[in-house]
TrEMBL record:
The lineage of its organism: Bacteria, Pseudomonadati, Pseudomonadota, Betaproteobacteria, Burkholderiales. Residues 26-107 form the Carboxymuconolactone decarboxylase-like domain. This is Carboxymuconolactone decarboxylase family protein. Gene3D superfamilies: AhpD-like. It holds the Pfam family CMD. InterPro entries: AhpD-like, AhpD_core, CMD-like.
């Protein structure tokens, strides 16, 4: 089994590489950012609910960077560990064993970003 990544380092690295893509592919990145902004806008669902869904989909897709970015957003939105665990239970229910293993990584990402948040409080 692969080691659990340091999600802070991973998200910083991915963000840096995305800056290159923004410079080289501005239209593509603008389109993606517009899509992200529209999809995450408050509507029938609030931002925290949408981020919980995104975290579950990150588990399903086995996307470490997704876990990092969405766990960080959830911490910033005031999500609790209990909320994260319940949404991950649904991801496991829908995705079986592989989702269970990736849910463990999602907990690690959420706790990593929560630890940094505790220092700010």
């Amino acid at each position: 089994m692969a080691a659990i990544p340091n999600y802070d380092e991973l998200t910083r690295s991915v963000s840096k590489n995305l800056a290159t893509m923004r410079a080289d592919l501005p239209d593509v990145m603008k389109g993606f950012n517009d899509l992200a902004r529209a999809a995450s806008a408050v509507g029938a669902l609030d931002k925290k609910t949408k981020e919980l869904i995104a975290l579950a989909l990150g588990v399903a897709a086995r996307c470490d960077a997704c876990l990092g970015f969405h766990a960080k957003a959830l911490v910033q939105l005031g999500a609790t560990l209990a909320e994260v665990e319940e949404v991950l239970a649904m991801a496991v229910y829908m995705g079986g064993g592989p989702s269970l293993m990736y849910s463990a990584n999602a907990i690690a990402a959420f706790k990593e970003f929560s630890a940094g948040r505790q220092d700010e409080l």
